[in-house]
Specification:
The complex is a heterodimer of chains A (about 100) and B (about 375).
Chain A: E1 2-3, E2 5-10, E3 16-17, E4 32-37, E5 39-48, E6 60-66, E7 72-77, E8 86-92, E9 95-100
Parallel strand pairs in A: 7-9
Antiparallel strand pairs in A: 1-8, 2-3, 2-4, 5-6, 5-8, 6-7, 8-9
Chain B: E1 8-14, H1 27-42, E2 51-55, H2 64-70, E3 77-80, H3 87-100, E4 106-113, H4 116-125, H5 129-135, H6 143-158, H7 162-176, H8 190-195, E5 198-200, E6 203-204, E7 214-221, E8 233-242, H9 260-267, E9 276-278, H10 284-294, H11 302-310, H12 322-326, H13 330-346, E10 360-369, E11 374-384
Parallel strand pairs in B: 2-3, 2-4, 9-10
Antiparallel strand pairs in B: 1-7, 4-7, 5-6, 8-11, 10-11
The chains are: A mainly beta (about 100), B alpha/beta (about 375).
């Protein structure tokens, strides 16, 4: 696990993007810098209790979160945090996860 | 201004639907059965068809031209659409433009899937590269998980209760009881709806579209090719939207919001003139989002629309039972199912579920869960040719 989630920031207009774009949807810029975001606020979550075609599925939580710049990500939620909770973000194999800040 | 005067939907057909296809029941078998049914309905033969529009999640490695070969269709117009739940509506738009413009005489619009449940899980986890890399590793549960988050947002924004969604599922089940093709036809009570197991909170079993194997087809041709004594159905207006907001919104407005005013203006009618609606229903949440975008819900009062308009049967919505009860034979054929039902209703051929005097319908498609919600949408206003 790597602390923070890697997002792309347009070097021309500063807009944040995730997942990575090829061209900035705000200014059409083509250059981005990688930025790590370490925190976000949980907006909604769900517990995925069933998956079609999967046996022995273990329930897991996913959430929609908002970063300080307003970017919204879907993450794997690794604890019982609810809406409004401040989360710390981390990556596992490029995929974004989060849990309550310690 | 009225469009597409020289094109009409003149026939519809579908295969049987099944929850669990046998190994020898492939996507192409279901598509063939749908084609045969649609041609019989239109009173045409395969030799009359010179255009084919096709969409499926499970046709690969074959492409549209391979399917044309297997179906014995020699063509001068061919497209393959890759926009999931809005593919059917996109293909309808392409087909009426092709026939109206004289590029093709008779177009078969065909869709189907036979992934099976395990195959569907693979499709859901590999819908695009973003899903593969950033959603599937979370155990997001496919579209159910994504739309559970959208439903949470919708409930919060519009102060909806879980039972509000139930009115849509229950009403559609009542319609499905009158559709011999529907996979779920047993009437459902609110208690049964509310007691159903959760799939991904707040979505429970009856909020999630049941995947089936099946095929669906319609035939678009000049209006005078309609079988004798039967009205064709004309497209008064058609619009589509793709990647309308770069996934930067909340998903509670769909791409329909970008063109609804234009759609109604071109059709020359208002939402209140519509006799019935086929709204793409992978989830009740998205039925409400699309209906609201279309202007079918006065004052954005989603709760009242559910409890009164639908719960008290004041407006015919998804009169074949919708995909929620009739089954979703893949997104593309599911969308075509709604169009077909609108055609049957406007031709006054819907049997015991016929909406009396139906003259105008609106139908939609919605799909391609790119990341946080669907990125494609399309809609048409359909009219009975008198």
């Amino acid at each position: 696990m790597t602390p923070g989630v890697s997002i792309q920031r347009c070097t021309n207009c500063g807009a944040d993007h995730f997942p990575p774009p090829m061209l900035c949807s705000r200014c059409s810029g083509v250059a981005f810098e990688l930025v790590r975001v370490f925190e976000a606020v949980l907006e909604e979550f769900t517990t995925v209790r069933h998956m079609l075609g999967q046996e022995n599925w273990q329930p897991r939580r996913i959430a929609s979160v908002r970063t300080p710049s307003g970017l919204r990500l879907t993450i794997g939620l690794q604890d019982e945090s609810g809406p409004g909770a401040n989360l710390e973000l981390f990556e596992d194999n490029s995929a974004p996860f989060g849990r309550a800040r310690r | 201004m009225r469009s597409f005067q020289n094109a009409a939907i003149i026939g519809v057909g579908q295969s049987a639907y099944t929850r669990r296809p046998q190994p020898d029941q492939t996507t192409q078998h279901f598509m063939r059965d749908a084609m045969v049914a649609a041609l019989a309905d239109a009173k045409l033969t395969a030799r009359d068809i010179d255009g084919l529009a096709v969409s499926s999640f499970s046709l690969a490695p074959d492409a549209a031209v391979d399917l044309a070969w297997k179906l014995g269709l020699s063509l001068r117009w061919l497209i393959q659409d890759t926009n999931g739940g809005s593919s059917a509506m996109n293909m309808l738009g392409h087909a009426v433009r092709a026939v109206d413009g004289g590029v093709a005489e008779a177009v078969l619009v065909l869709a189907g899937d036979a992934t099976g449940l395990a195959g569907y899980a693979k499709v859901a986890a590999n819908l695009n590269s973003v899903t593969q890399k950033y959603l599937a590793p979370l155990g997001h549960g496919g579209p159910n998980g994504v739309y559970a988050l959208v439903a949470n947002r919708q409930m919060k924004k519009y102060a909806l209760q879980k039972s509000d969604y139930g009115h849509i599922a229950i009403a559609q089940r009542q319609w499905a009881a009158m559709n011999p093709y529907a996979v779920y036809r047993t009437p459902m009570t609110m208690d049964e709806y509310l007691a159903a197991p959760l799939v991904s909170d707040p979505l429970s079993r009856y909020d999630c579209v049941p995947v089936v194997a099946g095929g669906q087809a319609i035939v678009v041709a000049r209006p005078d090719r309609a079988p004798k004594g039967r009205s064709g159905v004309r497209v008064r207006a058609h619009r589509a939207s793709f990647n309308y907001d770069n996934q930067q919104g909340d998903g509670l407005a769909t791409g329909i919001s970008t063109f609804a005013d234009e759609l109604w203006r071109e059709a020359g009618v208002r939402p209140s003139d519509i006799d019935l609606a086929s709204i793409y229903d992978d989830y009740p949440t998205m039925v409400l989002a699309q209906a609201n975008d279309l202007g079918l819900i006065p004052d954005n009062d989603l709760s009242r629309f559910c409890r009164v308009t639908i719960g008290e049967k004041r407006f015919p919505l998804n009169t074949w039972g919708g995909m929620l009860s009739a089954g979703q034979p893949g997104g593309p054929a599911g969308g075509l199912n709604g169009i077909s039902e609108a055609v049957l209703q406007l031709q006054h051929r819907a049997g015991e579920r016929q909406v009396k005097g139906a003259r105008l319908a609106v139908a939609t498609g919605y799909g391609m869960t790119m990341y946080r919600y669907g990125g494609t949408a399309a809609a048409a206003v359909l009219e009975r040719i008198e």
